[in-house]
Each structure stands twice: as structure tokens, then as C-alpha cells.
Amino acid sequence: MKTTRMRALFWVLLATTAIGSGAAAYSQARDPIWDSSQLPESRGTVKQYTLTPRGDVDGLILTDGTEVKLPPHLSAQTVFAIRPGDQVSVRGLRARAIPLVDAASVTNVATGKSVVDNGPPDRRGANDDQTISGRIALQLHGKRGEVNGVVLDDGTTLRLPPPEAERMQDQLAQGRSISVRGDVLDTALGKVVDVRAIGASPEQMTEVRSPRPPGPKDGPDRRGPPPPPPPGFGPPPPPPRG
């Protein structure tokens, strides 16, 4: 509850600054880019990360006991920029009664690398698909050896359903030039494309079929022979011989 209230105060502070700067600043207030230098600064040395039940980093503990809160979607950026033992500069709102900072940014003093909370990650919709072109460096596989994507020369990962990868295997050969259209997610760990169309060039693409939703557990789409009948439901025994 306190963290929610502090974050609300943070947005009020930023909105007030934007209004005071005129109409141009107001139009920028909707963008996820803020000047966190206007917020109070705290400095200290990182003792450890704080983790969510899923293992994502959602903050830091400093050696003086201060708890620094960050959203879990910044987990990768935090681990890349800041490690235990690093001295950091934290910009954010401090709690009144406990050593807690709701951070808008955390900067590694030695390297200058910063982690900035600009809001939730941008999840692009189907109408915001991008087109990516490159040369295939290698294929990616599932646990059964089925092809489920490729990696381009620049490190971009392309993912598509295994049945479609099998259907388009000639286009996914190593060394081939390829163009794809799809949902692009660019993270600190790399760029990945959820492929919706694929082809030799942006002008010649084939739509990727969506995976078929799974049917009932014992329906006609199941694989393998039918399961054996449960005990007591087998064929009746032969009649006794007279």
C-alpha cells in the first residue's frame, strides 16, 4: 500500500513539472521518458538483490539496510548494470517511517550504467508488426529435435511454431537470406521476433499459421494408440466349458 502511494506521488510530481513547462511539456507527459534527476538522491553500496517468488529481481538491499524497490520487468537490466558490492546512486521517493526507496532510477557510480523505470514494457499489437531481414546463422530446436526458430547473423532470434517451421524448412536453411514480419521484443538479453509471415524478401512473404489449439485430452487429436481401458472394464471372460 505504501509503495503504491509513493508511486502515485511520483507521478503527481512529474505531472506538476510538465504542466509548469507549458503545452509542449504536457504533450510529452504521456511519453515514458522522465527526468529522474529532479527526485531526491540516495547513495550506498549494494548488499544483495531482492527476489520475487519466480526469481525475478524486484529491488536491492544496501549495506545500510535501505531497501530499494524496482519493478520485476527491469530484472534483466538490473542484473546487467548493477551487482552486489557496487556503489549506486538511487533517485526516488523515500518512505517516512522505514528505510525504503521507491526508485525511479538506479545508477552504477563506477560505470555510469543506469536502470530507469519508464513504465511497463511495450507490448506491440498485431497492427504494429515490424519487418526484419537478415541471413540465417543457425537453426533452433525443441527437446525432440524439431526446428522451432532460427538465429540471424546479428543475433536476432526468430520463433515460429514447429509445424510451420517444418513446412517452411527450405526457407530456414543455414546461410539463406530471409525476411520476416512479426511482433518484435527488444530486451537487454537480445531481440526476439514472434514470426507471423516469412519469405525471401519483404515483398514476397507467406503467412505463418497459428498453432492449432489443443483438443480434449482423449479426443481425436491425441497422439499414439488409444489408452487401455481402466481395470474392471475389459472384455468379459469366456463362459466356462460344460
UniProtKB/TrEMBL annotation:
Residues 1-23 form the signal peptide. This is Uncharacterized protein. The keyword Signal applies. Residues 198-242 are annotated as: Disordered. Residues 225-242 have a biased composition (Pro residues). Keywords: Signal. It comes from Bradyrhizobium amphicarpaeae.
